[in-house]
Amino acid sequence: MEGHTEKRKSFLEDAYYYNIISNLIKDGGIKAKIIKHYLPIMNKIINNYLNQMNFFVKFELDENFAETIKSRHRDIFTYDSFSEGEKRKIDLALLFAWRATAQLKNSVNCNLLIFDEVLDGSLDDTSTESFLDILKGIKKNTNIFVISHKPKELLQDKFENHITFIKKNNFSVIK
Fold first, then answer.
1. What pTM was computed for the model?
2. 111-175, which class in CATH?
3. With the CA atoms of 84, 90, 96 and 98 taken in that order, what torsion angle do they form, in degrees rounded to the nearest 10?
4. Edge-first strand listing for the sheet containing 58-61
């Protein structure tokens, strides 16, 4: 009987600590405090990148990562109300902001960025130049690969190195 009492005590103690841990990792726990701390920083970084890409909106994420986008005379817009090029700018600003925030925290330092067909899509020439300027600014100790289907002649002066791939027997191979 005494062995069962000790086991029960042990289980109750474990349940007590599991309950504390559960409360800490719930949405209202430590995660919420971390998000509240970094959200203003992230929003500032996002808006800086949007401004660098000549997209003058005020973009804000809330604690649930729902966005509020104010444009023109500060009317509220949704992500879907923007053109594909404007959406691409928002997407890129978010990507760069997450990366910058992780670096600020010093918990993650990614030295590899791969962009697939970013230059082939909906960015206009001015936005493309702004994107390339941002890449030049983060180049230190970062390996950046930009995959594009644009002719090599259009990108020749934009990057230091080029690797050309061709399809051979339904596989991509280096030319």
1. 0.76
2. alpha beta
3. -120
4. 58-61, 67-71, 75-77
CA–CA distance, 52 with 72 (Å, rounded to integer): 17
Q: How far apart are CA 75 and CA 58, in angstroms?
A: 10
- Token readout for 71 is 């444009």
For residue 129, the tally of other CB atoms under 10 A from its CB is 14
Q: Taking the chain (175 residues) in consecutive chunks of 10 residues, what is each chunk's mean pLDDT?
A: 80 89 77 82 94 92 87 82 91 92 76 87 85 84 85 80 87 88
User: What's the one-letter identity of residue 170?
Assistant: N
The total number of residues shown for the chain amounts to: 175
Helices (H), 80-172: 84-105, 125-137, 152-155
State which amino acid sits at residue 71.
Answer: S
**Within the chain, which residue ranges are assigned CATH 3.40.50.300?**
111-175
In angstroms, how far is CA 39 from the centroid of its own chain? 13
